[in-house]
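This week, work through this protein record:
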Amino acid sequence: MKVIGLAGWSGAGKTTLLSRVIPRIVARGKRVSTIKHAHHGFDLDQPGKDSYVHRTAGASEVLISSAKRWAIMHELRDAPEPHLRELLGRLSDVDLVIVEGFKREPIPKLEIHRAEVGKPLLCPDDSWIVAIASDGPVAGAQLPVLDIDDAERIADVLLAEAIPLERIVATEEVS
């Protein structure tokens, strides 16, 4: 299993890019999983559903299963957020895991940059960024700049720059 990340400011188009790149990688015969970091509380469950009742009653984990899918929700209950390495270890084995968020983690990353977002590049402060996907030229870029609409080329870079899970070390910082 290999891992690579996407980093960029909110509104840069990370999720939109993933929705176009994942099918390209899957079409090459690769199995892909993703990890998405949320910076705030989120809830997949709905009040009134049995799983919601189980979780709010105090269950640490709730597994929901059907003929089409299954999911486990794990409630931290004031425990610290798991590190990226621990989360990666919970995934089934695939060819590539793409991490969206966790931008401070020491893993190779593709920076997603749009000038209209009005935020500076992350790459000057992150030596793990291997290339930039942008909707236009990036002045002073010291890394390869890819057209954000070239999903095939971006898929090439993600596959080429991903590192084996075994090379990822747990860090104390969670972004």
